[in-house]
Amino acid sequence: MIPSIEIHNIISRITPNGSLHSVITVSDIDETNYNELPVESFSLPVRLNAMIIGLVSEGYMQMIIDGVTYKVEAGDLLTLVPLHVVQACRPSPGFKGQLMAGAHADIVGCMPSKRNFNPIQILKNPCTRLNPQEIERVRDGLNRIRTRIEQHSHSFRKELIINAFQAFCLDLGDILICRSDHSVGLELSRKEEILHEFIRLILINVRKEHTVTFYAGQLCITPQYLSLVLKELTGKSASRWIDEALLHEARVMLKTPKMTIQQVADKLSFSDQSTFGKFFKKNSGLSPMEYRRS
């Protein structure tokens, strides 16, 4: 199984005081704070349980994404979703850029529409060369989000951050849709449409719905066909997708000190704490209490 790096391990290292309840953060990144990231885990392929958007302003970094080597350099936009398998090298001397990181489920809930941020197209095109005007649009959008994050005393801080993020998505979606190198293949195959819609449904519903039957019903296909499509496109069955998404939600909640394990089990619609504990142990190797203490 490919290991994963949780979003809180990224956010806490680069902006210990600047995030919105560990949901979205924007930070300048260079050699110094890049070295604070858990890059020791990047020496082997990993999945990031997060959405990552990076804009490189100086220097470069070599990355292996889904087995393909990319030299991400000045003027490049890097867009990663949890579907990507990433292997990173250390940056070049003088490397500088901006990084937005966010919990994928929370970010998807803030997006204005699925067309503006299609995870299948991002999966196909994780690295995009921008022109000077596009660079400024992306940089302005990231700075606007960061400005809103830093307004800690504002009565409507969360709403302001969400609005700034939605505007950023619209601008970024426009850039990706209008570029000639993204115009090819914008129409999804039927199987890709199923994957796209399944991802959206699972991120919205996984706390309450744990069965393949539910998601297949929402997609008007059989559970067997859904698993076949997901296995073909991602290498994972529908039940494995559900278990991993549910495990991620559980991990995030267990890191919230105010929530008891019983409350986590209730929030995730398990019948009782014992059933939740067995699920968590089976999928993580630790009991909920052991994970909370780790």
Structure write-up:
The strands form two sheets. This protein has a five-stranded mixed sheet with strand order 1-3-8-5-6. Strands 2-9-4-7-10 form a five-stranded antiparallel sheet, sandwiched between helices. It is an alpha+beta fold. It starts with a strand and ends with a helix. The longest helix has 22 residues, at 157-178. It has 14 helices and ten strands. The protein folds into two domains: 4-183, Sandwich (Jelly Rolls); 190-293, Arc Repressor Mutant, subunit A. Helix 5 packs antiparallel against helix 6 and helix 11 packs across helix 13 (273-284). The protein is globular, with a radius of gyration of 19 Å.
Order of helices and strands: EHEHEEEEEEEHHEHHHHHHHHHH
What's the count of strands? Answer: 10
Mean pLDDT: 80
Structurally, the number of domains stands at 2
Shape: globular
Summarize the structure.
It is globular, with a radius of gyration of 19 Å.
Which helices and strands appear, and what pairs or packs with what?
Layout: E1 4-6, H1 7-14, E2 24-30, H2 31-34, E3 46-49, E4 51-58, E5 60-65, E6 68-73, E7 76-80, E8 85-88, E9 96-102, H3 104-110, H4 119-124, E10 127-129, H5 132-149, H6 157-178, H7 180-183, H8 190-205, H9 212-219, H10 223-234, H11 238-254, H12 261-267, H13 273-284, H14 288-293
Parallel strand pairs: 1-3
Antiparallel strand pairs: 2-9, 3-8, 4-7, 4-9, 5-6, 5-8, 7-10
